[in-house]
Amino acid sequence: MERAINGMTQKELEGLFTDLGQPSFRASQLFHGLHEKGLKSPDEVTTLPKSLREALRTYPFRTVEEVRQLLSQDGSRKILYALEDGNTVETVYMPYPDRTTLCISSQVGCKMGCQFCASTKAAFVRNLQAEEMLSQVYVTEEITGDRIDRIVLMGIGEPLDNYDEVVRFLRLITDPRGKNLSARSITLSTCGLVPRIYDLVEEGIPLNLAISLHASSDEDRRRTMPIANRYSIREIIQACLAYFEKTGRRISLEYVLIEGENDRLQDLDALSRLFKGPMWHINLLPLNPIKEYKGKSSREERIYAFEDALHKRGIHASVRKKRGEDIDGACGQLRILYQGMGGPS
Ligand code: SAH
């Protein structure tokens, strides 16, 4: 796919403008208009001369378009966005009293095949471009009239399986001349692509890293997560240590509690052996139901008892509140085409 103007760094725009015989401050005006103001096309960047805006019309500009929205009782909204080629992805908008978080998708579909996750049930279609991830943020800001101040890469897709575009997205959204979001306000969740975690260490972007763990041994993990056949929990821990040393950011471990599968005493013991110390934080989540997976969520009392038992063993852990469950907008319930929402009309 040809690089769209709204997925270019300021440096790349300068290169393009030099080719067009334009001074570099014009590139800066365009970048500022598109990313700080979240404008929807170069045409809207009125600081640029009209002739230049016209010339820019011939260059690709890629955004997302709202197809449908579902509003949850808790104020969350699940938005189905259409991409230029007709594919769709979902984005979840979550307002809280003191902040607004947006959960964005990084791929159309997912190759990882985790059994309990809806996002992986349809065939993988393609990676999202950086500008398509950015547009989920900017268009949601426009639709809601709200400012997004936290982003979680926890929607459809495995972000580290779309490494280059995700890193480009991160560089653009944290650019001081653009939206200037702090890397600390961004969380990237991965099922544990170990070599890519090491690559991320090299980038040195101090974002929050979340690992979808969901089991306390490799053997158990292999039952629900195919990625466990490629990388062991040990290898993930080593990579996280390197990440922590470089960025100083605590690592979260996502752990959905499945009755009788991973909520046993032996799981508590294994987790507390593996994840002792201030660099780890375990997020316990109820399993959200999807029709393709038969496992049941642990009951609420069990989840809180599990949290308590981890605390007693000196482990940092908390139970994550669900958002958007009534609209299938909760973790692991996002699909590229959700029955409840229909397809693009
Ligand atoms: N592929 C990345 C990003 C997706 S994040 C990753 O695996 O981390 C979505 C989160 O929801 C992941 O932690 C995922 O494991 C979790 N999840 C998947 N299915 C779920 C379900 N049915 N209930 C609760 N959480 C689920």
Topology (SSEs and partners):
Layout: H1 10-19, H2 24-36, H3 50-56, E1 65-71, E2 77-82, E3 88-95, E4 100-103, E5 107-108, E6 126-127, H4 130-144, E7 150-153, H5 163-173, E8 186-190, H6 194-203, E9 208-212, H7 218-224, H8 233-247, E10 251-257, H9 265-274, E11 280-286, H10 300-312, E12 317-319
Helix pairs in contact: 1-2, 4-5, 6-8
S-adenosyl-L-homocysteine is lined by residues 112, 114, 116-117, 154, 158, 189-191, 212, 214, 254, 256, 285, 287-288, 290, 331-332.
Report on the structure:
This protein has 345 residues and is of the alpha/beta class. Helix content is 32%, strand content 17%. It has 10 helices and 12 strands. The strands form 2 sheets. Strands 1-2-3-4-7-8-9-10-11-12 form a 10-stranded mixed β-sheet, with helices on one face. A two-stranded antiparallel ribbon has the order 5-6. α10 links the parallel β11 and β12. α4 packs across α5. The longest helix has 15 residues. The C terminus is likely disordered. Bound molecules: S-adenosyl-L-homocysteine. The site of S-adenosyl-L-homocysteine has 19 residues, from β8 and β10.
